[in-house]
Amino acid sequence: MATDTEGIVYSSSVYHWAGDGEGTLFLSPNPRREYDTPQTSWRWTGDTIIQGLLEQYARVYPNLRAHAPGYPSPRELLSRTKLGNVDFEGEMSHDTAGSDLIERLLLDDDPRPLYLQAWGGTNTIARALRSIQDRYAGTPQWQRVYDKVSAKAVIVAGGFQDLTYTGYIAPNWPKLQVRDVSGGYGAWGYYFEGQSPVPQQWQYYFGADWTRKNILDVGPLGAQYFVWGDGRSTPGDPLDTFGDLSNPPKWLPARKKHDFLSEGDTVAFMNLIDTGLRSEPDPTWGGWGGRLVRQTTAPNLWTSAPSDLGPGGKAIGSYGWTRWIPAAQNDFAARLKWSVTPPGRPVDHQPVVRPLTRDGQVRAGTTVTVCGLVYDPDGGPVAVRWSQYQDAGTFPGAVTITGADRRCAQVAVPAGARSGRTIHLILTATGSARTPLTHYGRVVLTVRRPGKRPCARDRGRCRDRGRWREVPGRDRDLRRPRRVRGHGGPRRRRRRSHRGRAEQPARPAVHVHAGAAAAHPAGPPHLRPPRRLRPHARTAARPRPAPGTRAACPVRVRRRPGRLRTGV
Question: Which helix (H) or strand (E) holds 322?
């Protein structure tokens, strides 16, 4: 899935706001505020930080572009960096360059979803929505615009860091999809209770040794990365004391020097990375950005699933996030290495994975084969593994996978699987480089339960005592309709036409022979069709005329949905 960066917008939050520059005192009504007296600004670090990071990005951009396509140019990103609503927490009283950009993107003709990443408050997004409402509400175009924006916008929030979602967005735009991914903070460093949810075998990826080797010592971008005890702080933020281990923040326990600090709101971006999991269009499918569950329909709110099934079928808290940590961290390390490797020199890339089995229907009680095309673009060996992502599917049980370590595997669908349930199969491919990179493929199987042996067939279904059942063994859409003589089902009642004459019930299909045509040159009376029907080009068996005689008019057969009809 290709994702375009349409804009980078500064916004405020309960933790950071600039003030209006006129000395206005402000006291937030938000109970999460960090101050008790009115302030003129709070922890504001300026509106040039992003531009400074883009300068470092420009230094390594030629290397990144040489090793992987899709990286936007620094000039393009700089032109799309805008200042949003930053005066106060939740301020949405006036239009800004950032809100105007969001408004324009919501109203353009691009049919793709627009993912609005709220790494702070949602007030700049709320201002854009308010401007649209002020312009179109009460006009004939309002319903069309409202439906378009509600279907197009997807807000992905790292928690609600101001009150504009509950105060304006939810009551005025209830159909707009909002995803709260703050449940992933614990997996990526911000575990507030002091106990990491990351399994012990993967905590190595957050230790000082891994961080120094793969991040801090790797190029200009790696040098910008903040970690525990690095002696740095963000100018303008007096509470940024992570770099001073003697004075750590009160809300987060200190760790060792150069331990991984956090990815913070990056969790909102993780599902937009093309991993092959196809997790962004449907948040219930799960991916690097977690697996979400729907909380309410109005408003349309989604939050992180509390747990996933781990090894052994036991539910593990935050496992919808932590299960991807090794692959995600190795991918991060590889991209930093790309940034310092000149063009022409070898680097490691993710394996290429293309499922050869499409999403489709399977019958309960059968065994199906799923296959995938897997190779390493760098020419190395690749380890593959098929597995079931049980939490993403609606089938509650486990399936048996034979040959899971091969490109083609056999999946046994349980006989008791209910029709309509889904089974998600993940093909994981991992390279053999020093930094093993991983890519995925996903196949979704939908169970279709077979019925009993049919008593009669009509469009792939069987009617038995007034009930319709699926007919096993044949595709409904490919079945040719036909009627069977001697059907033992309930009789059809004779209907009365508007002229009062009893209409004949539909007759069963018959095979027309040459003898019938000879006995009745126009066809037997009960098989004569209406004159308006044109004869089909394909004729039935035609008798050869005797020498010196004229052949009887042939009987022609044409197919109509539901029955066979004959015509002359």
Answer: helix 319-322
